Amino acid sequence: MKGRASVEAVFREERGLLLAALVRRFGDLDLAEEVTSEAIEAALVHWPAEGVPPKPGAWLMTTARRKAVDRLRRDQAYVARLAVLQVEADRAAPAPSSDGELPDERLQLFFTCAHPALPAEDRTALTLRCLAGLTTSEVARAFLVPSATMGKRIVRAKNRIRAARIPFRVPDAGELPGRLPGVLQVVYSIFTEGYAASSGPDLQRLDLAEEAIRLARILHRLLPGEREVAGLLALMLLIHARRDARTGPDGDLVLLDDQDRSRWDSAMISEGTALVEVALTGGPPGLYGVQAAIAALHDEAADVAGTDWPQIVGLYDVLRGLAPSPVVELNRAVAVAMRDGPAAGLALLDSLADEPRLREYSPFPTARGDLLARLGRHAEASAAYREALGLAGTEPEREHLRRRLAEVGEVGEPAKGRE
C-alpha cells in the first residue's frame, strides 16, 4: 500500500486512536493534537516511499511521543503542570497492548469533546476536529463561518477544557445515563446538517452525513450494550439510505412521493432495521430508537399510500411523551393528515401557530401550504408557501417552493405530499 490515497485511508482510522491515546498519556489536548499532526506529517514523508508499516498505529505513536518529549524539553512551562496530570493519567491508563496496536480510547475523547461545560457549538466543532479528523478549515465550512473564527472557537474550547480540568474519562455507571445523550446529540447534529443543509446551494452535504455515521459506528463498537447508541445508528442509516433518490440530476429536491425507491440503499435499510430491533428490545423505548422505528416504517413501505400511517402516528405519540417539542407535534400532524385526511392535519398545525420555535422553521409553513393545497384553498396555500420561501435555507428548497407557488397560483393544481 504505497499511494497517497491508501496512506490517507490509514490516517483516517488511526488519527482518532492516536489522539485519544496521547491525551491519555500527556493529559493535554493541545499538545496531543500538535504532535499527532507532526507524526502524520512525518508519515506522509516516509510512507509513500517506504510503504505503510505493518503496525501503523505503533509507528505513529512512537513518532508522536518523541516529538512530545522534544517539545516538553524546549518548553519547561509545560512540565510542572503535566507532571500532576501524568500521575492521574498513569493511574487510570490501561495496560499497553502486547501486539503493538494502539488502545482504543476514543470513547473518553467523545465524552471530553461533548462535555456539558462546553457550549453546544463548541462540542460539535471539537468532535469534528478531534474525532472526525477534519481540519479547522473543514470544520469552518461545516459551520459556514470563516476559518479564523472557527480557529478561535476551537482554541477557546480547548482552553475551557484545560481551565475547568475536564477529565479525560468515561463517566461511571451512575453518570453515564446523564452524559450519553449529550454525546449522541453532537453526532446527530452533524448528521442533520448533512441530511438537510441549513443553507447553501445543495440540499444535502453527504460528507457530513457519512462522517456522522462513521462516528456512530465507533460509538456502537465501544458501547455495544447501549440501546440508544444502536437507535441513533439505526436512525441515521435508515434516513441516509434514501440519499440518492432525494435529489434529481440537477440537484432538485425530490419528494418522498416521487422518489424512485429502487434507488434506496437496501443493505443500509436491512442493517438499520436490525438495529431498530436491538434499540427497542430489553427496556423502555428511547428517543432515537422510536425515531428509527418511524424511519423503518417509511423505508419498508412500497409507496407512500402503502405506508403504515396509523403505526407512525402511534410512534409519534410515544415520542411526544419521551421528548415533547413543537417539531415532534409538526411531524405528528403531517402523519395524522396522511392517516385521517388533510383537514385533520391542518387543524393540528393551526394549533401550533403561536409556537416560537416554529416561526422561523420553514417546514412548518411548507406543511401548511401542502395541506391547504390538498384542500383546494389555493390562495391560503400560496401565502404559506411564500412564508416558507422567505425562511428556506438552500436553493433546492427555494426552487421547490417556487414550483409549489406556480402550482397553486398559476396552474391551480393541488400540490403533492411532503418530502
Key phrases:
419 residues; disordered C terminus
Structural class: mainly alpha
The pLDDT mean sits at 88
User: What is the string of SSEs from the N terminus onward?
Assistant: HHHHHHHHHHHHHHHHHHH
Beta strand count: 0
- Residue stretches low in confidence (pLDDT < 50, at least 5 long) are 87-100, 410-419
N-to-C CA distance? 43 Å
Question: Helix content range of the residues, please?
Answer: 55-70%
Q: So how many helices?
A: 19
Largest sheet: none
What's the oligomerization state? Answer: single chain
Strand content: under 5%
Round the Cα radius of gyration to an integer and report it: 24 Å
Walk me through this protein's architecture.
With 419 residues, this protein is mostly helical. 68% of the residues lie in helices and 0% in strands. It has helices spanning 4-26, 29-50, 56-74, 76-92, 106-113, 120-131, 136-143, 147-163, 176-195, 206-222, 227-240, 266-279, 287-300, 309-322, 326-340, 342-350, 363-374, 378-391, 395-411. Helix 2 (29-50) crosses helix 3 and helix 9 (176-195) packs antiparallel against helix 10. It is elongated. Mean pLDDT is 88; it is low at 87-100 and 410-419.
